[in-house]
Predict the 3D structure of the following.
Amino acid sequence: MGSEDVVRDVRRLEKSRDVRGVIAVLTLSRHRDDVDVQAACLRVLGNMCHDAENRRLAGRSGAIEAVVDAMKRHGGNEKVQEKGCWALMGMCHDNAENKRVAWRCRAIEAVVDAMKRHGGNGKVQENGCWVLMSMCYGNAENERLAGRSGEIEAVVDAMRRHGGNKKVQECGCGALNNMCCVNIENTRFAGRSGAIQAVVDAMKRHGRNEEVQKCGCGALMSMCCNDAENRRVAGRRGAIEAAVDAMRRYGGNEYVQKCGCGALMFMCCDDAENRRLAGRHGAIQAAVDAMKRHGENEYVQEHGCLVLLSMCRDDENIRLAGRRGAIKAVVDAMKRHGGNGKVQENGCWALGNMCYGNAENARLVGRYGAIEAVVDAMKRHGGNEKVQEAGCGALRNMCGDDAENGRVAGRRGAI
C-alpha cells in the first residue's frame, strides 16, 4: 500500500474518531520512515485531541511518546515538525497528566529543536510557541525544563524573526508568561535574553490585537515580579507605555486590566524613575478607570490598589492620584469587597500613601468615607496582622495633620 492510500486511511480514521487506530498507523514499523504518513497522522491527532476525551485516550495510549519519536526521527522535515507541535499542543491543552507524560518524554526538547532548526517557518514557530505555552501552564517541572532546554531563547528568536505574525507574538508572550510566572531563574534568564524588548515590540506592533495585548501584559507582569533588573529594563524599553496603552484600548477586558495593573505595580514598586515615567504616561488614570469599570472584579481591585500604593511614593504622583479620583476608587473597592483581606490591606496602604504630606488628599479622604472604610477593615479583619498594620499607617497619615479627620476617626471607633 502506497503513502497516498495510507493517508486516505488515516483521514477515514479521523472521521470515525478512532484515536487508537491513528496511533497504530503512526507507530507501525513500515510507516515510521514515511514522512507523508507521519505528518498525516500527527495532523489528525492534533485535530482529534481538541476533544477532551480524545486527549485522555491519546495520552493513555502512548500518543505523546509516538509524537516525540516522530519529531526526533524526522527533525529535518518541516511538515513533521509543524504537525508534531500541533499534536502535542492538542494533547497537552488542559490535561495535567498529559503534561506530566510530556515532561517524562522530554517533549519540550523536541519542540525547541524544531523551532531552532526551522526558524524561518512561521507555522513551526507558531505551533511551537503554542505548545510550550500549554505544557508550562500549571506544571513546575516543565517550567524548569524549559529554562534549561533553550525554550526562552527559542521563543524570543521566534518573536523577533516573525514580528508581523500575530499568532507567533500572542503565543510567544503567553509562553514567556507561563515560563516565568513562578520560576525566578527563568525570569532572570528571560531578562538577559531580550524577552522584555520582544514583548514590548509585539504590543506596540499589534496594538489592535486584543490577544497580543492580553498575553503581553501577563508576560510583563510575570517577568517583572521578582527581578529588580527586569523592572529597570522594562521601564527603559517602553513597557510602561505599552501596558498603559493596552489598558486604555481594552478597558472592557478584565484580564488586560488585572495584568496591566500587576505589571505597572511591579515596575514601579522599587524604582523611582519608573514611578515618574508611569505618572507621566497616565498610569494612575488607567488604574482608576480599571477599578471603576470592573468594580465587581476582586482581582482588578486588588491589583489597582497595588498600582496606586506603588506609585504614590513621590509628591507629583500623590497629587495626581487625588485629582484623578483614586481616593474614591480605593474607598469604593474596600466597601464593595469588605471580606477580601488583600483588597483591604492594599487599600489601606494606598490611602495612607496618597495622604502622606498632602493636605488636599487628607481632606478628600474625609469627604469620601475613607476613615470609616479603614476602621471597618480593621474591625472585620482583626486577626490579619497585615491589615492591622496597613490600617494603622493609613489612619496616622489621614489624621496626623487634619483635625477634622481626627474627630471623625474618634467617633468611628478608630481609637
Observations:
- The radius of gyration is 26 Å.
